[in-house]
User: Fold these one by one.
Assistant:
Number 1:
Amino acid sequence: MNNRIKNAFASKQNLLNVYFTAGYPRLPDTLPLAKALVEAGADILEIGMPFSDPLADGPVIQRSSSAALANGMNLPVLFEQLRELRAVVPETPVLLMGYLNPVLQFGVEAFLRQAAAVGVDGLILPDLPLDEYEERYHPLFQQYGLKAVFLVTPQTSEARIRRLDALSDAFLYLVSGPGTTGGTTLPDAEAQQQYFERIAALNLKNPRLIGFGIADKMGFDRACEHAEGAIIGSALIRALQDAEDAPATAARFVRGIKSPVARSV
Amino acid sequence: MTPSSYQQPTARGYYGEFGGAFIPEMLYPNVEELRTSYLDILADPDFQLDLQHLLRDYVGRPTPLFEARRLSERYGARIFLKREDLCHTGAHKINNTVGQILLAQRLGKKRIIAETGAGQHGVATATVCALVGLPCVVYMGATDIERQSPNVARMRLLGAEVRAVTSGSQTLKDATNEAIRDWIANPVDTHYIIGSVVGPHPYPDLVARLQAVISAEMRAQLLEKTGSELPHFVVACVGGGSNAAGAFYHFLDEPSVRLIAVEAAGHGIASGHSAATSVLGTPGIIHGSRTLLMQDEHGQITEPYSLSAGLDYPGIGPLHAHLGASGRAEFIAITDEEALQAVSELSRLEGIIPALETAHALAALGQLGAGCDDVVVVNLSGRGDKDLETYLKNLDKLV
Ligand SMILES: Cc1ncc(COP(=O)(O)O)c(C=O)c1O
């Protein structure tokens, strides 16, 4: 099978993974946004499946999630929208990110089948317990050719990181510091540096992307010094909040991050 | 007493098919630290010495078991009230917070957070934080801040910071979300004192064990007053289910004792404005636990409604979901109006003004089918001072 995630990491450096909420700012924006983001230079897409109670998310993604739900987004609608996914973004890895409860209600196997059918590559389900994944869902993920992406935090023990690394064959999502998504308080730079170096020294089999609190080109470039790339979410959502033309705004946002221009001080 | 499958969850925190720990990785180290240490700490003789001392001299335990003669006459059964309303701060919630603050100290935590609905758990947490000198932040829905203002004032007087939560329905569910997010942001020095038998394992078991003192005392008191440790009925209201868990705990393995869990029907079960989770809920995940919760067909959690802030929650603890599914407990739903009538009934018959949450349990007395030789214990989980404003607004329904 064509492994879009592996191909992306093999052929590119400093990968930009962009998160956006499906059905936001308007219900039909999902695919036009995906297309615009990829054309502007996004290397991986992470499409958020909105949930009423997103525990790991800060206020920005809480708001985009409830707006998307109010717009009428749900999993059947999302899969309907994504039927054209691979016509629009043929080679870019696409992940679905969301909480477990809507997936459980949809049915885990039905969810995996539909995700695979529309060409999704992997899943980020932060509240799916590792034990549960290992015992019940890992074979199903494999059956449908879907990769699981796990989060690692500064508090995650080495033994657990090694277990996460062994169970995944996509990339590890390094949470940059304590806090939910969209955090603005800068973590202790020295502690963060040590954390990234500690992970790098583990010689893990999976590449790493750094996420949470990365908002601009400077943050992206810094993250790329410690990992294969970075994940940006809340900052894009914030830019989309009052956007007249969401795809154009998203494209401008990505070009601002990926532009080769020397970083401004 | 040997632990049973009802009392004791599995190693991963399951009661039957309910429970577990469905948490993002950011919470894992915190929850894991608690999971691997709570049983040892609870069993430690020094911990028990400190806990027993505080329960006796600070909380005021044992709380009385009062035989309510006029209420008994009204319902034609022998009715006892377990007076948790006489605990320091006015509700059962402090049984849990004294235990958890001692636990937090042993884990070396320097900061305490909590969520609260009715404000009773917030007050009980602020109280023990003052007692041991730890800073305390309480998350409370903006709606609840308004309807439980005396408790907000008490928390502030006790030195706690009350943070208003304006997301969602601005009630207990949203306050819990915000407390969890705070814990994610403060993973090392902070302990989260959850207020009910909800949340990821080991919280439901931890809180149930700390509340179990209620039924341990009941057994001894019943033996003295009735000649038997076992009543025919134990009745308690269920928001998340902590007072009910405590009142049921030492009767779970006594099949002759009927356990009655009373939920809030709000305007009525079919009204669209209700919090009767055992009827309206389906299995799913809320606040890190697989349990019954109110949700739409797409797995989005829906907004509950009850006039009572402490029962206005779209889930129930996994123990109660299991007790319901297995038939060990029976569930009854009581409307706002019925609860208000029970407030005035207990006030006038026994001279005790109950909390609005507790009034739901009292309102179930007419539905038990208890006979005149039957011994019924109602867990009087809290006093009504915090609800006076609500009671005054509803005087027409009270009389
Ligand atoms: C007096 C009283 N009873 C009952 C409850 C409901 O909580 P639980 O179901 O955990 O006992 C509350 C919650 O605030 C309360 O204040």
Number 2:
Amino acid sequence: MSRAEAGPTAAAAAAAGPAVAGGPRWPAGLVRSEIALTFRRWRTRVLLAVLAAVPVLVGIAVRIQSGRAGGGADGRGPAFLAQIAGNGLFLVFTALAVTLPVFLPMAVGVIAGDAVAGEAHTGTLRYLLVAPAGRTRLLVAKFAAVAVFCLAGTLAVALSALATGAVLFPLGRITLLDGSTLPLGAGLLRALAVAAVVALSLLGVAALGLFVSTLTDSGIAAMATTVGLVITAQILDGIPQLQALGPYLFPHHWLSFADLLRQPVYWDGMAQNLGLQAVYAAVCGSAAWARFTTRDITA
Amino acid sequence: MPAPPAAEPGRAAPGEEDRVIETRGLTKVYRGGRPAVDGLDLAVPRGSVFGFLGPNGSGKTTTIRMLMGLIEPTAGTARVLGRPMPGAARQVLPAVGALIEGPALYGFLSGRDNLRRFDAADPAADPRTRTARVGRALERVGLAAAAGKKARSYSLGMKQRLGLAAALLQPRALLVLDEPTNGLDPQGMREIRALVRELAADGTTVFLSSHLLDEIEQVCTHAAVMARGRLVTQGPVAGLTDAVFGPGGRGRLAVATPDPGEALRVLAEHGLTGLRADGEHVTGELAPPEGAPPPDVAELNAALVRAGVRVRAFGTERASLEDAFVRLTGEGFDVAG
Ligand SMILES: Nc1ncnc2c1ncn2[C@@H]1O[C@H](COP(=O)(O)OP(=O)(O)O)[C@@H](O)[C@H]1O
Ligand SMILES: [Mg+2]
């Protein structure tokens, strides 16, 4: 009965076949699914709406203020505030300078903190893992989705600021920090570059949040912890007695994006910023990987 | 009872490849507790509907988590479809469909989008056939009409069926179903059991955990019985009660009589154990203590009549799995481990 003997084995090989043959054949599918899932959540949409509302509020406030005081800003307040009334493009820079210290990293902290812990909480994580998503692959997809959110959040602020600025204020040649001027088109390119740098500045928080997210089965706890860490880092960075610590805190070089508004561009601060973000992403990413690939999934 | 699997006859030593699941000394100790699963040696033959039976807390879900690579065993090994778990998860799991500890869904997605999401997580699933496969899985569990509704609005039964649909997105060699009828109404239970039988008829091996004895007796060809993390017994369902009570173990004697008190006394004198009287219905275990020959049923009847017990009905009931369980563990089945 040698044929009968061969039967079950052949069936087993056939059943387990596709995966055995060539490894993952559609590696990008999970990333796409992950991004789509992130942006279909209510939470994500509310956060983007709040971020987009900030420049509108700032723009309206500046408009009212300049109408009343005849355009004279007194030099206090966020960077570039004084220039907005003269050139709406500066609302983009102001809005990013306003949201980068708190709103943007908090939003990223919420999305990143929830990424793994939220799925553990609802139990969908175990079904992704038996699918089998693969723990490393799932973590990479999660990080990719959070990174896309960093970009989306930044663009929500920048595009809303650009639209508000164009409606409420004149647009034209922009005067850079060193006094030189650029035509509007080149100015828009600078704004785009600023947005890109701001989005990259958030990757450290993204990786930190993802690591926290692998530590717990409660999405709320992970979000709160990540946001708490962001605020703590900001406070520590602001204490003069802790100057020695400053350069190692992820928000320390964030506002260096303003150096893109010089001619020639001054790169040192941004290089330090992006380098620090890369270190945070590498360290927190490795920690998240070490934790997530060895962890018991019982939820 | 479905026909016994073709594995046993004419096969000197069933090859390892005929074991869809095989564990050796599988043990799990959660942080700071006693073992949730303790030295488990499980052998699930290919093509069987394998019942994994045990009261709540006996370690069924923990075993399944280890088999699916969700948690690391504290000791011992597990092989699924002939490969080690959790090591070979990427090769093994695409051929396994699983429902573990109830369904878990994205409430803000429709039923259909939930399935698309889980399918996208499987690197072996072809996205070009996704729509068709999702549609077929929905049809199969009877959810096609509700596929567009948000999963949040599903009833528990519908969620359970959507979970099953996720397990059926691809042809599977093994289905692992952890208490798939939990929380369902009798109609829902019947539907799920019918589906399980259908799948088994297609040749899929089904590993079905349950704390319901009659469920296992109704749908399973084989069973393993767990109590407090330990394996009590395993084998073909038909043989389990025999293995416990001996061949020809007739199980329980049932007598209907208006004189239950006198009947209990007489039967106890004749060595019956586990005697119970429920109104006019008196039952007792026919299995004798170790070594002794089983009591002669005809003799018991005569003794009752001699003692003046008025007998309305007299008969034997085949020993149930519950009797076997009580016998093996010395405790009732609903006692939590
Ligand atoms: N995540 C966990 N952490 C600690 N103990 C657990 C965990 N999950 C289950 N247990 C314990 O392990 C034992 C077996 O549980 P489980 O495998 O869920 O049993 P069953 O599925 O048969 O009801 C129980 O005593 C339970 O309390
Ligand atoms: Mg359980």
Number 3:
Amino acid sequence: MRALCWHGKQDIRCDTVPDPKIEHPRDAIIKVTACAICGSDLHLYDGFMPGMESGDIMGHEFMGVVEEVGPENTVLKKGDRIVVPFTIICGECDQCRRGNFSVCERSNRNKSLADKVFGHATAGLFGYTHLTGGYAGGQAEYVRVPFADKTHVKIPDGVTDEQVLFLGDIFPTGWQAAVQCDIQPTDTVAIWGCGPVGQFAIRSAVLLGAKQVIAIDTVPERLAMARAGGATTIDFMAESVVERLNELTGGKGPEKCIDAVGMEAHATATLDSLYDRAKQAVMLETDRPHVLREMMYVCRPAGTLSIPGVYGGLLDKVPFGMAMNKGLTFRMGQTHVNRWTDDLLRRIQQGQIDPSFVITHTVGLEQGPEMYKTFRDKKDNCIKVVLKP
Amino acid sequence: MAKRRNTRPDALAQGLGWFSIGIGLVEMLAPHALARGLNLRGNERLLASYGVREVATGIGILASRDPEPWIWGRVAGDALDIGTLATGLDGHDDRREGAGIALAAVLGVTVLDVLCASSLRARRRARAVPPDYSRRSGLPRPPEAMRGAARDFEVPADMRTPEPLRPWVPAA
Ligand SMILES: NC(=O)c1ccc[n+]([C@@H]2O[C@H](COP(=O)([O-])OP(=O)(O)OC[C@H]3O[C@@H](n4cnc5c(N)ncnc54)[C@H](O)[C@@H]3O)[C@@H](O)[C@H]2O)c1
Ligand SMILES: [Zn+2]
Ligand SMILES: [Zn+2]
């Protein structure tokens, strides 16, 4: 089959690789009908996440039709249409039972490696480094889904692939980002980053009833899409984010702040951005926490920082004293996808939201490598790429 | 050779690229015969230098990602060619006829060059206009009308703000 494989920094290729096979009785093999490129894939593409090996199949946002099931999988059958969450879940461990799916205790098959790096292992993820299990990803014609009897969302007829594909990651991610803010009707929610995750966080915050939603980015078409979803926008290259946020909140700062940017925050004209660039270049720091610093600074005391943006390693000059004294609450993590999907699928079916609004490019798998670049560089007004194998 | 999408202006540009190389080679390799035919004797070196220009432009068109500047280069070259050929129309030599035919041919190619360059430019400009995402809300009604539409959702206990950190709302 054909699949997009990682071969090194900024080197993704559409290779021919062996078809996946059932390896465990709970597995399923699915034929992928649609998959997408995520901002998280860019961290691998740009070489910021450790733990990739040449030839690894990329992709953790995908859906398709069940082709084959293992003998112990009595939940799925050939022909079922499913979206696959990017977090692999056993459904039975302590964490899964609490709904903390992204830290499932059993799905990461490289547990001892992850234990060493993270202290305790987190869930297995598709196409996302050997720290999270080294599972083959979904930017491919076929995928093996481990623990497939739990790791899926069944999709009924009557909704298109484009409407439900993002249930596997970015829609629940934007949703959880907003839910973690426990939004009150009096809240201002400020969202850094108007990429796909930011876009869903904006809509989620509006639907959950925030008084005011403010979105921050610098890419004009992303800001336009943010305004379409109900956000007031700030261009971080053209204005002072802190000043504008204070202005828009009567000088008090937003109660809730969402980081939908992560470790690759763009250098702004500020001193700390230059500092991060320099330290990253000499490998004294792995991530660029500019957005985090800004959130800690501007957030209203006793406020909440919700961090769906991915960080990989060590952060420097994080003003923890400020955060402590202001009594800020931090909530973060990979998304507990299956915790939200039933509810969100129902909202899609009821027409409360149509997630396909975010798709700007639909191409074949073989165009994947060039699309990574287009998406990364925000060329051609690209916001979200869907690949059809 | 750079791979390009094969749309019509691209195909035309490619044709013009090969044409440039062909003509250029003739000018470079047989300037004497050409000068005779075009009533331009004494201008052999000029013709040979035009040949170098043509070949370079042709390679530029075929090898670059964006042929547009090279095609405009061809248009400029056409003007030079026309000027030079026009001098061949002077006098009573019966070779004037050759120059006349060549001039007509160059005028024809010039039309193609201008067409190609301007359609490449039009396409570039069309691409530069950002698409309008201002209606991509994903919501069935304006955001203002959708505010709080999901208030039926119950935030799970582990994600709720602790009571002391909640905003104080005075009793009505
Ligand atoms: N927690 C999860 O489970 C989860 C799931 C999916 C994605 N993510 C993460 O969410 C983040 C966003 O993903 P995406 O797909 O939207 O990616 P993206 O790269 O398309 O979006 C990031 C956006 O942030 C903007 N940005 C950069 N620097 C900024 C700054 N200083 N201030 C404000 N905005 C800035 C960029 O212009 C860009 O539009 C990534 O870190 C990704 O890894 C997390
Ligand atoms: Zn993702
Ligand atoms: Zn589990």
